[in-house]
Amino acid sequence: MLLLLKSNTVGDVFPYGTLHGDAALQEGDDETSKVLVLTKPMYFYEASFRNLYVATNGIISTQDLPMEKQYVDDGFPTDFPVIAPFLADLDTSGGQGEIYYRQTESPGILNRVASEVNQGFPDARFNPTHAFIATWDNVGAYEEASRHAGPSGKRNTFQAVLAYDETDTYALFLYPEDGLNFFGTRPKESYNVEIELPARVGFSRGEVSFFIFSRQEGPHYSVTSNEQSVKNLYQKGNAGVPGVWLFHIGNSFSFDNVIPAAAGSLLPTVHLFGHETHGQHPGLPQVQSYEDVPRTPGPPHHPPEGVAGPGEHSLSETRRLRPDGDVRGQSPEPEPAILEAYPHRVESSPPHAPDGHVVSVEEEVDFDSGGKEDISWPKFLGSPVLPRARLVGGTSGEKPSAVHLQGHSIIQYSTDNRETCQRFRQQCSHNADCADYSTGFCCHCRAGFFGNGRHCLPNGAPQRVNGKVSGTMMVGGTPVELNAVDLHAYIVVGDGRAYTAISEVPEPVGWALMPVAPIGGLFGWLFALQLPNSHNGFAVAGADFTRHADIIFHPGNQRLSIVQTAKGMSPENYLSVDTHIQGSVPFVPPDATVEMEPFKEVYQYYPSVVTSTSVHEFRVVSAESGAQSISYQLRQNITYRDCRHAPRAAPETQQLTVERVLAMYVREERILRYAITNRIGPVGGPELVNPCYSGSHECDTTAQCLPGEGQAYQCQCATGYGGDGRNCYDVDECAEGLSSCGSHSECENLQGSYRCRCEAGYELETASRLTTPPPLHTHTHTQVSSLQAISGRASLPHACPMCLFTLEPDVDECLSHPCHGHATCANTRGSFECHCQPGYYGNGFQCHPLTPTRRPESVCERWRASLIEHYGGQPDPRQYLPQCDTTGHFNPVQCYGDSSYCWCVDKDGREIPGTRSHDAVKPACLPTAAPHTVRPLPRPDVTPPPSGTVLLYAQGQQIGALPLNGTRMDKERSSVLLALHGSVVVGIDYDCRENRVYWTDLSGRTISRASLEKGAEAEVLINTDLNSVEGIAVDEARRRMFWVDSTLDKIETANLDGSNRQVLFNTDLVNPRPIVVDSSSGMLFWTDWNRESPKIERSTVEGHNRRVLVREGIGLPNALTYDPTTHQLCWADAGTKRLECISPDGTGRRVIHSNLNYPFSMVFYANHFYYTDWRRDGIISLSRSTSQFTDEYLPDQRSHLYGITVASPVC
Length: 1211
Description:
Blueprint: E1 2-3, E2 23-24, E3 36-44, E4 47-55, E5 59-61, E6 82-87, E7 90-91, E8 98-104, H1 107-120, E9 130-141, E10 156-164, E11 168-174, E12 184-185, E13 197-198, E14 200-204, E15 207-210, E16 214-217, E17 220-222, H2 227-235, E18 244-251, E19 259-260, E20 319-321, E21 327-329, E22 390-392, E23 402-405, E24 408-411, H3 421-424, E25 432-437, E26 440-445, E27 449-451, E28 456-458, E29 463-475, E30 478-492, E31 497-502, H4 507-512, H5 518-526, E32 529-530, H6 537-541, E33 544-554, E34 559-569, E35 575-585, E36 593-596, E37 599-606, E38 609-622, E39 626-640, E40 653-666, E41 671-681, H7 691-694, E42 703-707, E43 713-717, E44 721-723, E45 728-730, E46 745-750, E47 753-758, E48 762-764, H8 765-769, E49 789-790, E50 793-797, E51 803-805, E52 823-828, E53 831-836, E54 840-842, E55 847-849, H9 859-870, E56 893-895, E57 901-904, E58 917-918, E59 950-954, E60 958-965, E61 968-969, E62 975-979, E63 985-991, E64 996-1001, E65 1006-1011, E66 1019-1022, E67 1029-1035, E68 1040-1045, E69 1050-1055, E70 1062-1065, E71 1072-1078, ...
Parallel strand pairs: 29-35, 32-41
Antiparallel strand pairs: 1-18, 2-8, 3-4, 4-5, 6-14, 7-9, 8-9, 9-10, 10-11, 11-18, 12-13, 14-17, 15-16, 18-19, 20-21, 22-23, 23-24, 25-26, 27-28, 29-30, 30-31, 31-41, 33-34, 33-39, 34-35, 36-38, 37-38, 37-40, 38-39, 40-41, 42-43, 44-45, 46-47, 47-50, 48-51, 49-50, 52-53, 54-55, 56-57, 57-58, ...
Region (Disordered): 277-335
Subcellular location: Secreted, Extracellular space, Extracellular matrix, Basement membrane
Domain Thyroglobulin type-1: 857-925
């Protein structure tokens, strides 16, 4: 957003100068700043930009500027992107002023900009997260000495502010009074002709791509056209104040051209997020997602002289005023809604609320405690203008019972209807205190607990959420229904980690819902790690709320609606949330992965409503479609029951920082999982380095982290737990006599708590003695009307009132199936019992599959956490962080942030020499640890392939077999030849004489073989003095095998049974990988992909006559094979993307194909090359004769394929 300040004096511009953190541009006539990399990208027109440049000549650009003679004397449009508050030939040489600039996230700056924008664009609801300020202070015009006896001394001062969030950018230009003293400059090459070009003010997108190779002029918007229009810059404005000009200049979805603010000074728009209708539950207003409640326009107001008022044009002819007086047509915009109080009496009688108060069906009334619901006015919109309001009821000296404002009533309290703690204390949590105020009472959680007072949970304790997910979604045109499937969430409040699992999700929608992380994002907001002076969602909304979320995907325009309703706490103190999903989602291919970057969301807090709007981008990576970028806009509001009588504790805006988002669908288990790490704090607040705030502390998951000075902190076990804070355990209040259960009641221990249950034949005294029904607006789990019947007996968390005897006949509760689906029910006298079935654990009402215990943090994960803490919790994208896989091992390839500076590491994270690269192709690093084993395990013996010629390929923990039908790959008959769990099979070759396959295992550091006979088992040949053994080659004629070790930098040989082992070469090797042998000639060939000096070498099989065959024109020669028909050596290069061949004497080199993806290994058969490809995770065939791709095979199990060879029945 470019913001021109609403000010008419220099003192009112935004603060600037070096004391405010500004950088100063070097003085001169044609200077451009160094690139300023924005913290988050900014939209200008429809495009996203991360870099900004400030130039002497009164402009800001998103790219480095050309020389001034290419643009300074020309009008719009320009060839490059331009934001121009005053484009002219300016000069700061010799101390003629200063130019300052900075980017900022200061709440004061952002709030001020938000106020300007939301008044100029009443429907914007703009909440900027970042701003950029550039100030030209007292700058002069370029003047040639020959034309004047001396400089004129005229100086100009002006300022531009760009403010933006995830979707929109606004620009504000500020021209203070007396700030403009010259209005144009003379061209340098005017050949003594006295002409002056007026300054250009406006915006230009620059040239944009047209089709593939063409470019065309992009859109532009001019504010000035002559000298008078430049003078109007400080004499008029489009935001209601002279000298202030406001424009909407970018949007992430679609943006045709710049939109100026509405001329004149408009009253702010009132956005009531919902209204209650007669017959709906009074305690929870039914909010219509993002629908404005219709209003009647207010009385006309008078804008400043020379500025058009909103009533001067009809709605269909909405226009904007420019400084030169030209009125340009713009697209129609809705007239701003003005709040108006009717001065006349309202004749119709509104209906009655359940408690007898007179209300209107359109009003928004809080029946929470009989109190009033103010029409909430966000402070950043300014103060509403309320004309005469009619008071309804009441007499002199008393509070009115209602105020009518345009059909809306605001219920006021009188001394007769005020609710007090004495009457309604039971609405508060048993871990809360009740406090009386002048208009009613409120509940406040006690020390050691957090919540909204009606629901309080112990600080630091992990939380659980249970619920059901229902709805119908269209996935690629196919409707898929979810019928009350289970949702479970587990949240580690101490560091903001939220894990969500949805079970029994059918496959099409399981993949498609992976990007819809907002389903689990609700629980991240609810229990986010709280930074100082901040409140997570549960502290505001408690356990009774409704969340409406609307998602619009781009580019497909699919729309999805999510409604999540919290229904209080279960007897086990689990939050109950039901989710309903309706709409359509983009199709996501099976086995695809979804990558989502960290993001920030700004939440606005009003009485009873929380709102947020954001845009999220993600990448879908699949074998079928490659990588596809998709985005969606998320708009949400959360309605809850607010207590208005006490001062508001939550800030008006907060920022949710989501540091990690992971989503996966497990096909075998039909489970959709989300993992999200969240913390909530002030908008644009400083980064806090204390481990309590970064989540890098070592406190137990059931402990609260208490920050100290600097990096110091303490751990304190949550209420209901004992221990030192780093190791906590549940306290059994029942066994230790700490419960307060009364007579004829039983104490049942819970995690972090306990509950009291009346014995069979007894019920709670409160329930049996209650004669007055509770108010309709009350609902709490500690209240009699909402007590759960557990095991046939009334129960209550913590304190249990006296249990009284009853003479009710026994009822078989098992007939109503009260237990979990994986539990058995046993009826008893006056009660029943639930027990989880074998293979499940729980209390019978909730049963969960037994899962292995959580593994300890790995070295990689601990190192990563330590560096995150060292970087202050928010590493720069260019800083190094170890990349760990899902099992905690080091990823084989490591990079500096999101750069292309990468290298390979071993299983301990140590760098492998010679692997560093700094180009678009990352090094071909191999894993040294086997992936996690999925059970059940198939037999570890050979399943013979079909008869005929077969391709054998290595795929991590298995060797696959792919039959050939001629030269076509017979995909239908592909199979697993041998499952090798715990292995990383890389090199592979075949011995035709004995029908055996040989392979290298990077994880086990072994060389093994197996016969291709049914039931044959693997035989380990060599298991000593190996480290990173990769390529292997079998010499059928000499009955020898050869292999390379890329860590020990050796080439060795041995007999096929592993005997007579010898070292051929151990010098001048860095990263050897493939090795092949031509048995007929006795020649050995290998490549070394040393990133600093790759090469291809040859020697005899005895190790004689070693020489470099190819050194020039190669990059990452992974794959190597020998063509016996042409007697040439051929290689595939992942760096150059070429497949080439050469004769063993170094002659006849030629390119077969020049556009490969990422080849890893290759074999030649029947005039075809077959190679494994890491981009496609499959096998690709290519004809040598035609140089064309002929076939492709993508295994069902998607992962990298390594070595490949051919097993032919004919030797």
